[in-house]
Amino acid sequence: MTTKIVTPMALLLTLAACGGPSVSLTNATPDEVAKAAAANGLKPTMRAGMWETTVEITEYDIAGMPAEMKAQALAKAKEDGKKRPSKYCLSEEEAKKPGGMFTGAEESTCTYSKFEMNGGKIDMVMVCPGPGGQNMTMSVNGTFNGDTATAVTSIKSTGQFGMSMKANTTSKRTGDCPAAPAKK
Questions:
Q1: Buried (b) or exposed (e) across 18-44, using 16+ Cβ within 10 A?
Q2: pLDDT, tens digit (0-9, with 9 covering 90-100), for 54-63
Q3: How far is it, in rounded angstroms, from Cα 30 to Cα 51?
Q4: Does residue 3 register a pLDDT over 70?
Q5: Cβ neighbours around 175 below 10 Å, total
Q6: Distance of alpha carbon 135 from alpha carbon 153, whole angstroms
Q7: Closest among 119, 144, 124, 117 to 46, alpha carbons compared
Q8: How far from 87 is each of 6, 53, 102, 168, 174, CA to CA, in Å?
Q9: Other CB atoms closer than 10 Å to residue 77's CB: what's the count?
Q10: Helix, strand, or coil here: 180?
C-alpha cells in the first residue's frame, strides 16, 4: 500500500517548480501534461541524492469491511508508515528528467481532471479507469522544492471492492547516494 503512494510522490517531485513557470490543465492526458510542462518551461528541481519518504495513513476504508477490521487495518497502516520510511537513491540523470507518470509512459489510460503546478505547489486529480468499472481517483495537494516535499494524497476506488485512503506524505533529501563499489 505504501508503495502506491510513494511512487506517485517520487514522480511528482521530479516536476516540482520553485516559482516561475506554471501549468494549469483540465481533462488532460499524462502526455498533454508533460508537453504543457515542457512548453511552459517547468523544469525538474529535485536534487540528486538519497531521499527518504514517510507516509502517514490518516484514513482507510474498504467497502463491506466490518468496522472493527477497518480500525485494525488503519492502525496497522499507520504503524507501518512510521516504522518503514522508503529510502531511495535518485541519480543525477533521474533528477534531470520527469517521471513516467507525466510523460505518458505509465498509466496511459488515466486523465487529469485537474492539474495545476506553480510556485513549488501542486494540486492535481487523476482518474484511472479500471476493469469492470472499478475506477481509481487520486488527488495530490502539496508543496515541493529541491530538498523536501510534503503532500496530502487521497485515493478512492469504486466497484465491488471500493476503497478510500488518505495519507500525509513527507519526502526529504538526506544526503548523497553511497558510492558505487569499484569494479574488479
A1: eeebbbebeebbbebbbbbbeeeebeb
A2: 888 888 888 8
A3: 25
A4: no
A5: 9
A6: 17
A7: 144
A8: 10, 6, 22, 17, 9
A9: 20
A10: coil
